[in-house]
Design a protein that fits this description.
globular, binds lycopene, alpha/beta, 7-stranded mixed β-sheet, binds nicotinamide-adenine-dinucleotide
């Protein structure tokens, strides 16, 4: 064996985002020899963290679904359980505090009826429509929450699930091609209320209701009141750290600073990977947790991009990335009773424009240990395209970052007066930062439809046209979100376990 050839693994996972780690832990728990290769220093990808001057900042995600205790949709709880690890979480009593145009100032309370009452108070003439719309989202959720969530590419699972839960399966078949906008307009007429439904979608799908799949909305709009939104004690980075601990307990391995530069194919089949340092690993199955754009244009030669991937790229494009402010601030700036998550928008016309909608997360309100005593963390971020940050000198880049940061701070001042004076720490990340540290082309948050599509019908599952190669993460069904990529991980591991003939597949 040549010195650069390492022994074969059953499964090699490229990337340790939550999608990659759920795949890896599920397979290790089923007895597969698994290797995860992560280019960065720590696991987690977009769910990672970094520490500065006593603050522990989350890189990206902070509003976490999937930590509930009951049902089948609590996929993060289940993923950790499967490898005998657990994570303490803190229940968030309000999912989002919206600060919207025309003084629409509304809290999405954990208790469903309270949320409905808050919304009905603004739109009393639409009470029936509001109830019917959100109740229909519950129908989707109840279907999902009644069945084991595994690979839709595994016919025996589909048949078994259909025989056990025929009505739930038929319900999901009905909703799979639907988008939220069409359902909402069936019940709601008030244009401002429809705008509210748009931002309810936009703040996690980064597209309006017309383009947001009904299945995903069913999950988000119901689970926030069922399993609830939780924050992991110690920061979002803990989820990946715990999954890695579970992976290693189950006999799996992870290597850091291991950047895969090539997926090796032989006779058209994926058989291994090559790292930037030249090392080669062989595996029976290769899983890419990199985005589809990175997988099919960087890790494989562009000219070999399968036809179905080209077709997919005609339906989906990269969403914008984010401009992110990681702020440390004196605790006195935040009034007593401030909620953890806020959405700020001053003008409906600007909702989908770059730097239009402002997302705010203040995790120290739930876990004060993430900041020095007497201080809070504010993570403020807003969609932004990488093109606006290219082709400038280092000093121009720094100046643009600073100007953009102060515009955001000015907007935050409207909600949290005194923020500027109470600033203790400020770090600005741009789409270039996301691209560099997360290995995501253009720093994208994930795929979005190029035009109105039929719900989730065109989102690819885990297998690819290249035998032996699978994808996992937010470039696969059902898209963005930690609980969504956890589903993708469960499904990917299930399909591979069947393909490898593992026990307990
Ligand atoms: N601001 C935000 O809130 C935000 C931003 C982006 C994504 N997200 C969320 O994060 C989740 C994404 O999870 P995911 O599992 O799809 O992936 P991910 O992007 O979080 O993780 C992918 C991992 O793969 C690694 N990687 C990429 N290319 C590699 C290579 N060639 N070799 C080795 N390692 C490589 C990256 O370093 C990263 O750790 C989604 O839920 C999404 O919604 C949130
Ligand atoms: C057999 C027959 C006949 C049939 C069959 C049918 C079936 C079975 C079907 C099935 C289906 C399924 C399973 C599906 C699944 C789905 C899922 C799981 C989904 C999920 C989803 C989730 C989601 C979407 C989530 C999301 C979230 C997010 C994204 C979040 C975000 C957040 C952020 C960004 C933040 C914001 C805010 C602030 C800060 C304020």
């Amino acid at each position: 064996m040549s010195p650069s050839l390492n022994p074969a693994f059953d499964v090699i996972v490229i990337g340790s985002g939550i999608g990659g780690l759920v795949t890896a832990t599920q397979l290790a728990a089923k007895g597969a020899q698994v290797l995860v290769l992560e280019s960065y220093l720590i696991p987690g990808g977009s769910s990672g963290y970094f520490e500065r001057q006593g603050y522990r900042f989350d890189v990206g995600a902070s509003m976490i679904f999937g930590f509930g205790e009951k049902g089948t949709t609590n996929l993060l709880t289940r993923a950790l359980d499967a490898v005998n690890v657990s994570q303490e979480t803190i229940l968030d009593p309000v999912q989002i505090h919206y600060h919207l145009p025309n003084q629409l100032n509304l809290k999405v309370e954990r208790v469903y009826e309270k949320f409905l009452q808050n919304l009905i108070a603004y739109f009393p003439h639409e009470e029936t429509g509001i109830r019917r719309f959100y109740d229909e989202c519950w129908k989707v959720f109840n279907c999902l929450n009644s069945m084991d969530l595994l690979s839709l590419e595994e016919p025996r699972y589909l048949l078994r699930t259909f025989l056990q839960h025929p009505l739930a399966c038929l319900g999901l078949v009905k909703y799979l091609p639907q988008n939220v906008g069409d359902v909402a307009r069936r019940y709601i007429k008030d244009p401002e209320l429809l705008k509210f439904i748009d931002i309810e979608c936009y703040c996690w799908s980064v597209v309006t209701a017309d383009m947001t799949p009904m299945i995903n909305a069913g999950m988000v709009f119901s689970d926030r009141h069922y399993g609830g939104v939780h924050y992991p004690k110690g920061g979002v980075g803990q989820i990946a750290q715990k999954l890695v601990a579970g992976l290693e307990k189950a006999g799996g391995k992870i290597e850091y600073q291991a950047r895969v530069t090539k997926i090796i194919t032989e006779k058209g089949q994926a058989v291994g990977v090559q790292l930037a340092n030249g090392k080669i690993y062989r595996g029976q199955r290769i899983v890419s947790n990199a985005t589809r754009w990175d997988t099919f244009t960087k890790l494989l030669p562009v000219e070999k991009t399968p036809a179905n991937e080209r077709k997919w790229q005609q339906s989906y494009e990269k969403s914008p990335s984010f401009l992110s402010l990681h702020i440390g601030v004196e605790a006195a700036v935040l009034p007593h009773g401030t909620e953890c998550h806020h959405i700020i928008l001053e003008d409906w016309q600007q909702m989908t424009a770059p730097a239009g909608t402002l997302f705010v997360s203040i995790p120290t309100l739930l876990d004060p240990d993430l900041a020095p005593e007497g201080y809070h963390i504010i993570h403020a971020f807003t969609p932004n395209w990488i093109d606006d940050w290219q082709g400038m000198s280092p000093s121009e880049y720094e100046a643009k970052k600073e100007a953009a940061a102060w515009q955001i701070i000015d907007r935050l001042e409207q909600i949290f007066p005194g923020l500027d004076a109470g600033l203790d720490y400020l770090e600005v990340g741009t789409p270039r930062t996301h691209q560099r540290f997360l290995g995501r082309e253009d720093g994208t948050y994930g795929p979005i439809p190029r035009r109105k599509l039929r719900g989730l019908l065109s989102m690819p599952f885990n297998r690819t046209a290249i035998p032996g190669l699978y994808c996992v993460g937010d470039s696969t069904f059902p898209g963005q979100g930690l609980n969504a990529v956890a589903f993708s991980g469960f499904a990917c591991a299930h399909r591979i376990a069947v393909d490898l003939g593992l026990n307990n597949a």
